[in-house]
Amino acid sequence: MGTLVDAYSSFNWLDGLVRGHPSAMKEHPVWAFAGVGSDLAGLMQGAAAAGEALGASRLAAAANTPVILVGLVTMMGMANSCGFGEPNNGWQFASGAEGFKKAADALRETKPPDSWLGDASDTYGKRNEEHQQRVAAIAEVDKAVKDALADEAHQNNSTRGTLDHTQTILGLSIPIAMGLYFVPEIGPALSMICQVGAVGATMPNALLCYRDLIANVQRNSSAIEKAGARYSELASNSKA
Predict the structure, then answer these.
(1) What is the per-residue pLDDT across 26-59, written as a single tens digit (0 to 9) for each?
(2) How many CA atoms are closer than 13 Å to the CA of 154, on its beta-carbon side?
(3) C-beta of residue 168 within 8 angstroms of C-beta of residue 31
(4) Cα–Cα distance for residue pair 150/105, rounded to 1 Å
(5) How many domains in the chain?
(6) 232 domain-assigned
(7) Between residues 105 and 47, the one the model is more confident about
(8) Which of 79, 111, 184, 205 ranks highest by number of CB atoms within 10 Å?
(9) Which tens digit of pLDDT belongs to each residue from 145-187?
């Protein structure tokens, strides 16, 4: 199990070192440089732990920083559950809503003129008005879905950013904990205090932002379910 955890965490640190943090250099250079440093520090854990098999047991013990590792792997799990790549912000539904609005406007231009008289004119006018109301209603539902997806995408990106920052800060504490380990006599105890303090300082913020994400997902999921029910209602009415 320990080997799997090490492989999982090393893969995430390597991904951040090669792809994630360098790509953020233009927008957030300070956090990007800090993130690269944190990724390197994280990779040091695996490298030094591997050194234990070669007899470097003291260095391996210092680099293992088990408390920090648990905190980082927990945050990595949260971040990975947010997915990869740019989240869907619902732009397709925005286009759909705009299209239906234009259709409703076009239908208003095709209402029967005052010169038309009789039952056929009345029936045409009634149907025309029904179509206007239907396409306008669909446009409103499309907009509701778009708003829910856009809000979810924003929250997702915000959560990813917060989790990345907390991992960066926690990862940068690894060299400090490693250095404290070599203090004569009390080194291991100081290193453990440093690890517990680092996790205690960063984990609450990570948990808070992740809890907010879950609440946001539930709220937007409810909005999309209501939109789905409204789509079904409009489809049923169109067949009546």
Answers:
(1) 554 444 444 444 455 555 555 555 444 444 444 4
(2) 8
(3) yes
(4) 26
(5) 1
(6) yes
(7) 105
(8) 79
(9) 889 999 999 999 999 989 988 988 888 888 889 889 889 989 9
Q: Which residue has the tokens 């792997």?
A: 73
**Amino acid (one-letter) located at 168:** T
Note whether residue 106 is domain-resident: no
Structural domain that includes position 224: 2-89+140-239
- Beta-carbon contacts of 211 under 8 Å, excluding residues fewer than 6 positions away, are none
Dihedral, CA atoms, 139, 140, 143, 147, nearest 10 degrees? -170
Helix (H, G, I), strand (E, B) or coil at 117: coil
Tokens coding 119: 């039952």
pLDDT confidence of 119, banded at 50, 70, 90? low
The model's pTM is 0.64
Is residue 218 over pLDDT 80? yes
20 domain residue, yes or no: yes
Q: Rounded to 10 degrees, what is the CA torsion of 142, 145, 149, 154?
A: 90
CB contact at 8 A, 94 and 149 = no
Ramachandran region of residue 88, left (φ > 0), alpha (ψ -120 to 50) or beta? beta
Q: What is the pLDDT of residue 211?
A: 94
Question: Of how many residues is the chain composed?
Answer: 240
Is 56 in a helix, a strand, or coil? coil
Residue ranges of alpha helices (H) inside the chain are 2-15, 29-50, 57-64, 66-81, 91-108, 119-181, 187-239
